[in-house]
């Protein structure tokens, strides 16, 4: 499956290519305790206006979920765009102009820009344009609910609080093992339960760190043509 590239354009024809993570797909997303919320959002009708918020701590899966939603909508033939706001916060918020035309607009880490006056005005205008069109899905993520964000524009806070909000709960250890095995299997690698349990016991249990471990093991296995035995894993990770 190809990886979609969202090209963001504003009226000045500025472009910002955003490459989605190659493995940010629902086939590799372990919902854990969030299955009901995930299924609800996946099935929303984007031919009427939908406004949804995903709230969760670092490593809860917000970026993976928004990227997977973008990938899913893109692959069914609709216009889908993913914007990592923390990464573009130093750019002009004019890049948001025209994005209400997308069937799905996924704004990751919206709380990274809501304390900035220019970004707040641009976000408020964007939401209003979605509401005027009464079409498309505006999906955003943040670490905290809208009521707890640092937002300089009260009208924007009201708009964000109107979103249907879901909180992503972190995965438990068994679900993290499932995610590790699933990601490694997608790369042609088998992770036995004893090795997975060893990794969880010795490494940071945050999903960001575990996915970095997946990358390291994948690269080492490919380079040395080795299976993921416990001695090899210890050698690669210096454990």
UniProtKB/TrEMBL annotation:
Pfam families registered for this protein in UniProt: Hda_lid (PF22688)
Cited Gene3D superfamilies: 1.10.8.60, P-loop containing nucleotide triphosphate hydrolases (3.40.50.300)
GO biological process: DNA replication initiation; negative regulation of DNA-templated DNA replication initiation
Domain annotation Hda lid: ranges: 173-237
PANTHER family attached to this UniProt entry: CHROMOSOMAL REPLICATION INITIATOR PROTEIN DNAA (PTHR30050), DNAA REGULATORY INACTIVATOR HDA (PTHR30050:SF5)
Record protein name field: DnaA regulatory inactivator Hda
Organism of this sequence: Aliidiomarina taiwanensis
